[in-house]
Q: What sequence folds into this?
């Protein structure tokens, strides 16, 4: 266990927002590469640490999901702290579904005190998707207001109520963006709103419909949003044609083109996963060149063991040391 | 209006299982309009209960009555002479009714026959939908009269979330995404700019979160 010491209170150097590795990588102009890790459905630290091994050194920061899809798991705050202990940089996810402004604020302070330097602000999937559909949800504030709350804590060193904070949390603040939800024409404006609220970086929903994403990024660039915020393109390799059609049908706001499903189906027996990875690698190649895209967010959901290979084949290694 | 659904016969039967002499009391307010607790529904429930108890071989006497409004002490007072003649009273009003009754008649027992669901209206014959959550500080002028507090599954003030798909909410294909409607309307009217700002967090003190609420109209209290 690392010692929790007052060094975690040290202000970021220079004009960095938080001085996190992710921020430094992006600021230095490198093409960023972030990963994702879901905490265990239990207190199984061993299981969590195993996932860390696949990610360590292969990505710049790792999102720690917060009761993702409303399925209850070890808290993202605790898992983020364990991650720091193991020498990786977490991107602490926080949803507005499960906490009111008091809990949100105190968890932000706690996160900073524990050495966390990146945070991703989300509304959260509705609890009806999860394993406690009977739960009462909170939604005291929404993700837009959460971005504003945490950046106000950082920049003005004030709580939401205007009171001064005794050592303000300096976090690099991210938000999500789903270009594939409806109405499509509004998505770029909602992104602009998140940037206006204070988002430093954006991680998009998993991209499969490349045509639509190209159109979206053109709008982003036309509005100059990529100059105000780092945009990381979301990639989740498909393990099979079945997974692809399931996601397309069952996950709201997920756009999986028929052509991709057919491509996976057309792969040789036992080779669908490899085909899925190939598609992901082609995407990454294109994102490297795509105007306005500052990096890739790789969500290898319950497939962390593939991250080293994907990182290698995508030419993402070694990760820059800034 | 306040919308309600009737509880199942089984549940009502189990509430009154110990009684042989009850009153089923309807209300001419909202529950009459939403066809759940008016004249007709009162008599249907009373017969259903009688038949069920007959089948069990435990007959029950049920009298029925419908008053103007159970949420009004003036009408509740009309029960003064009769309410004591029964072992219990089953109210078919919204959740407000049994409480006004219970407060007025301490010695009597009152049971709800309906589940009170929401403030809304009938969108078509036989289908009611929620429109307002009674948050106490109405903000729908900012959204062209559409309410995200009550109608967005996450009460987002900056929607639509990433789960909005083809005009429907992520929670089900039967639920419209109100944020899709808000945005579409603003776009059609060329007033999208209205939405391009970060709204202050909502003050929930006027909603249920501030504790039970009270409305005082000074001029009427004299
Ligand atoms: S803003 Fe509040 S008062 Fe107005 S319609 Fe919505 S829930 Fe009702
Ligand atoms: S899909 Fe629409 S209505 Fe449903 S939670 Fe998201 S924004 Fe709200």
A:
């Amino acid at each position: 266990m690392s010692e929790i010491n007052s060094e975690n209170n040290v202000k970021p150097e220079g004009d960095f927002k938080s001085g996190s590795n992710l921020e430094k990588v992006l600021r230095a102009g490198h093409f960023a590469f972030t990963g994702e890790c879901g905490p265990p459905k239990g207190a199984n630290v061993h299981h969590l640490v195993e996932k860390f091994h696949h990610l360590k050194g292969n990505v710049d920061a790792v999102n720690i999901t917060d009761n993702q899809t409303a399925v209850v798991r070890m808290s993202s705050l605790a898992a983020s702290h364990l991650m720091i202990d193991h020498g990786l940089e977490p991107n602490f996810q926080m949803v507005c579904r499960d906490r009111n402004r008091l809990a949100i604020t105190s968890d932000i302070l706690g996160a900073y005190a524990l050495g966390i330097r990146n945070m991703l602000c989300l509304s959260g999937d509705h609890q009806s998707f999860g394993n406690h559909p009977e739960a009462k949800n909170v939604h005291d504030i929404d993700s837009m207001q959460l971005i504003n709350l945490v950046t106000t804590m950082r920049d003005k060193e004030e709580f939401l109520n205007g009171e001064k904070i005794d050592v303000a949390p300096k976090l690099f603040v991210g938000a999500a963006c789903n270009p594939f939800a409806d109405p499509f024409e509004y998505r770029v404006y909602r992104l602009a709103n998140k940037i206006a609220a204070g988002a430093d970086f954006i991680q998009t929903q998993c991209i499969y419909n490349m045509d639509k994403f190209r159109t979206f990024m053109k709008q982003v660039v036309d509005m100059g949003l990529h100059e105000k915020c780092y945009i990381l393109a979301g990639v989740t390799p498909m393990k099979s044609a079945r997974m692809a059609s399931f996601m397309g049908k069952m996950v709201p706001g997920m756009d999986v083109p028929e052509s991709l499903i057919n491509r996976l189906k057309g792969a040789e027996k036992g080779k669908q996963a490899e085909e899925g990875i190939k598609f992901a690698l082609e995407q990454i190649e294109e994102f490297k060149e795509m105007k306005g895209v500052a990096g890739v967010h790789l969500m290898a959901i319950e497939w962390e063991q593939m991250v080293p290979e994907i990182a290698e084949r995508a030419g993402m290694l070694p990760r820059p040391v800034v | 209006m306040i919308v309600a659904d009737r509880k199942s016969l089984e549940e009502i039967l189990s509430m009154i299982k110990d009684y042989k002499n009850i009153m089923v009391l309807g209300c001419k307010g909202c529950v009459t309009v939403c066809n759940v607790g008016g004249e007709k529904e009162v008599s249907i429930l009373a017969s259903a209960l009688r038949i069920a108890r007959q089948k069990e071989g435990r007959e029950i006497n049920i009298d029925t009555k419908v008053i103007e409004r159970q949420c009004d002490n003036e009408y509740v007072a009309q029960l003064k002479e009769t309410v004591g003649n029964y072992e219990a009273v089953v109210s078919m009003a919204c959740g407000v009714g049994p409480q006004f009754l219970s407060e007025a008649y301490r010695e009597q027992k009152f049971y709800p026959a309906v589940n009170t669901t929401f403030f809304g209206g009938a969108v078509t014959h036989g289908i009611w939908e929620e429109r307002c959550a009674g948050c106490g500080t109405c903000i729908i002028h900012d959204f062209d009269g559409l309410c995200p507090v009550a109608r967005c599954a996450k009460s987002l003030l900056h929607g639509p979330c990433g789960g909005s798909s083809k005009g429907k909410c992520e929670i089900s294909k039967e639920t419209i995404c109100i944020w899709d409607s808000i945005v579409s309307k603003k776009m059609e009217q060329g007033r999208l700019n209205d939405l391009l700002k970060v709204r202050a967090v909502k003050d929930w003190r006027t909603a249920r979160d501030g504790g039970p609420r009270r409305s005082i109209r000074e001029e009427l209290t004299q």
The first strand of chain B starts at residue 2 and ends at 6.
